[in-house]
Amino acid sequence: xxxxxxxxxxxxxxxxxxxxxxxxxxxxxxxxxxxxxxxxxxxxxxxxxxxxxxxxxxxxxxxxxxxxxxxxxxxxxxxxxxxxxxxxxxxxxxxxxxxxxxxxxxxxxxxxxxxxxxxxxxxxxxxxxxxxxxxxxxxxxxxxxxxxxxxxxxx
Length: 155
Fold this sequence. Notes:
The chain is built from six helices and no strands. By secondary structure, the protein is mainly alpha-helical.
């Protein structure tokens, strides 16, 4: 089984994270902005600070790297392409968005169920599109440390 191509994983993960962050800004920063402002005001806060938005972007890149790690891991079994990228995005979304947001809805009640549902669905779109974008550049092999050719091939 081929080893993961670290450089391509890093590039693909950064692409997945940045694409996800851009869509996340459109969803949460623009479309859901009034709902987020209302939710923050109900907590007695004025809104998210610029440093909070920066951390959201860092977490988006980490999530993109995670999705591409899953993609690279399952790619030998499921093959390269959109279907495998979708599976990797789905697993990443369940672990990083669906479960945490459901727990906030059920146990926390910090924000409205509608806001939690919309931001969770937005995260699904972000991850699917970002992971497909990252998967389009990920290739196996070609890493700096490649295995030597078998002796029969060298002759």
